[in-house]
From TrEMBL:
One annotated GO biological process: pyrimidine deoxyribonucleotide catabolic process
Active site: D9, D11
Gene Ontology terms, MF aspect: 5'-nucleotidase activity
Database matches in Pfam families: NT5C
InterPro entries: 5'(3')-deoxyribonucleotidase, HAD-like_sf, HAD_sf
SUPFAM superfamilies: HAD-like
Family to which the UniProt record says this protein belongs: Belongs to the 5'(3')-deoxyribonucleotidase family.
Lineage, uppermost ranks: Bacteria, Bacillati, Bacillota, Bacilli, Bacillales
PANTHER family xref list: 5'(3')-DEOXYRIBONUCLEOTIDASE (PTHR16504)
Name this protein carries in UniProt: 5'-nucleotidase
Length: 187
């Protein structure tokens, strides 16, 4: 009997990427101060400074190692989920950030083994039962494929928040995961 596979995103799901990227953008471009409220799309080309680009915003060396944990419940709740289920961490990482992301994961969640660390942009190709993610481009296809989902509410997913079960804290996440999986398909 296989365990349920629970796929968990990294950026802005278990850590805070966009706030830190905004922080460095605003230091570099003091005349264009971005705020989280403006982040209503993954296409930030129209709002960041004209001299900013993907590499500057998301590719700053060391950025992914210094990201803050999502909240004080995140580590313990992921640990609990991993005790009952097959947790895979799935991140659409740029290749240069993969070592930094693995370092971050080892620091905060050393109980996640290397073989459960997936770098993947097309997440629905993976055979997970439940996805925890903030990206509409991941939540929508997962739902269409009949997978269970829990969304993390962020400004960029505001238009789809009513269609999904959303949680803005990791408090109680393991209980919620257990309940959803039990309701769907008891094994
Ligand atoms: Mg994300």
């Amino acid at each position: 009997m296989r365990k349920h596979i629970v796929a968990i995103d990294m950026d802005d799901t278990i850590c805070h990427l966009v706030p830190k990227a905004i922080h460095y953008h605003n230091l570099q471009f003091p005349d264009r101060q971005l705020t989280m409220d403006q982040m209503i799309s993954f296409d930030m080309t129209k709002i960041w400074h004209p001299e900013c680009n993907e590499d500057l915003f998301f590719g700053r060396p060391g950025l992914y190692e210094e990201l803050e944990i999502f909240d004080e419940h995140t580590v313990e709740e992921v640990r609990k989920i991993a005790q009952d289920h097959d947790v895979i961490i799935v991140t659409a990482a740029r290749p240069s950030s993969v070592p930094e992301k693995w370092t971050w994961l080892q620091r905060w969640m050393p109980f996640i083994p290397f073989e459960n660390f997936f770098v993947a942009k097309r997440k629905t190709l993976l055979n997970f039962d439940l996805l925890i993610d903030d990206g509409p481009h991941n939540l929508l296809p997962a739902k269409e494929a009949g997978r269970l989902t829990i969304g993390i509410p962020r400004p960029w997913n505001a238009p789809i928040q009513k269609q999904f079960l959303m949680r803005d804290s990791w408090q109680g996440m393991s209980e919620l995961v257990n309940r959803l999986l039990a309701e769907r398909s008891p094994r």
